[in-house]
Design brief:
Blueprint (H helix, E strand, L loop, with lengths): L3 H8 L7 H13 L5 H8 L7 E2 L2 E9 L3 E8 L5 E7 L7 H16 L8 E7 L2 E6 L7 H8 L4 H20 L12 E3 L5 E3 L13 H4 L3 H10 L6 H17 L10 H4 L3 H4 L4 H4 L5 H10 L11 H11 L32 H7 L3 E5 L3 H13 L3 E5 L2 H10 L4 E5 L7 H15 L3 E5 L16 E5 L4 H13 L1
Parallel strand pairs: 9-10, 9-11, 11-12, 12-13
Antiparallel strand pairs: 1-2, 2-3, 3-4, 4-6, 5-6, 7-8
Helix pairs in contact: 2-3, 6-9, 6-14, 9-13, 13-14
Length: about 475
Amino acid sequence: MVSPRALAEAARHIRGNDSSAIKELIRELERRMELTGYQSGILLKHEIEGLRVGNYKLLYRNASGSFARVFRGCSVLTGEMIGLKVLRQRYASDPRAVNLFKREGELGRRLKHKNIVPIYEVGSDGGQHYLTMEFVEGGNLKDILKIRGKFTPEEAVKYIIDLAEGLEYALSMGFTHRDLKLSNALLSAQRVAKLVDFGLAGGEASGVADDADRAVEYGTLEKFTGAPDGDPRSDLFFLGVMLYEMVSGQPPYPPTKDINERRQISRYRNIRPITSVCPGLSRPLVDIIDQLLRSNPHERYQSPTELLRDLRKLQPSFSSTTTSSEGLGSTSGPMPAIKSSEGEPSASASTANRTSTILCIEGRATQQDRLREYLSKHGYRVLMLSDTDRALQRLESMAVSGILVTCEALADDVVGRYGQLKKHADRTETPLVLALSAKRADLLPQLPASRYSQVMPQPVTLRDLRDRLETMKAS
């Protein structure tokens, strides 16, 4: 995990050799960025499992389900960042579970398309079973929707086209997805939507009850409408569910974990008309959503290709201009608009800032766009990074005028990562501002401020953040 030289240098600052000294050594290695917060947390629990799988170090846990966990990892051979999906230990000795897991990996290796997250390797190491895949920086549509509230129709249609193209390709290879939902669609930093998790593809979901239950909606829809198992039109119905929620901010039927409720066909037949939830949509988009959500599969779109034809016809109708927004990280609706009283930056301000660079640490594609557009408009050069480790490495080799970071970019280690950034900011006298989301407000007492490092809890606007950076720089 750590080179002998780095370990020796960290150990020089530690006194004693008891258990408290070991804990302090682990914390020192984290401060030196030799360990991530996730890794030090594992070690402080006196555990080893979960630190490395095959030739990969596990850096952070990105997601966790009943069947498997997903990590950001790093190859110990090449240093390449990678995504890893690791089968939970409770299933490691279950042949059916292992076969289902490996089947997902082997299938993923066959699917090579720009809108499908590729699987690179299917492996086992000491009883641990894992898949390696492309690491997509950005996040899944479910998490992004929680932050945004809803997407503009133009954005939603663009991302649904991406996903439909992935489905079209998979169908040409003889596969359907069988588990379409917002959390199984990732949005890259380049704003490309990609399908992930073909674990139930083709309808062969027998094996693990927890995993099979993920597709209970598919089974219910097909059982009561006479559709065959693995019907590609079922994927289109649930793509329609995604589109409905993306443009309206509300699911077409109430979410529930109750399996009996999920097995009621009335749940999928009695969907509220999209016009009652989002009355401002264009008629062509309403018609597309309505046709996708027809319970009778013969009245639905019959293939992704047929759907793509109508979606592409719709695209030119969208305005090429979008309203800029200044809010950051709203969790309850669209971002607040820039106040009209602010106006455009003056020529002198733009000229003064033109040689200034702001380093932004933000992993969500939509927020990256907002930050880049807003700061550029005010005359700054913007260096956008989504990975804190890369940002810290870059800061060692270049000077910037300010650092702006969101707590979402710091994942599960807000306190530790902020501490590392604060140490750099205080040492180099570089203004650092952390935008702290409302749901992480409980961390505020653990995030000390200084002359060059400050925390701004939500709600906060981009102007607030910029003003704070400029005030700190001038003081």
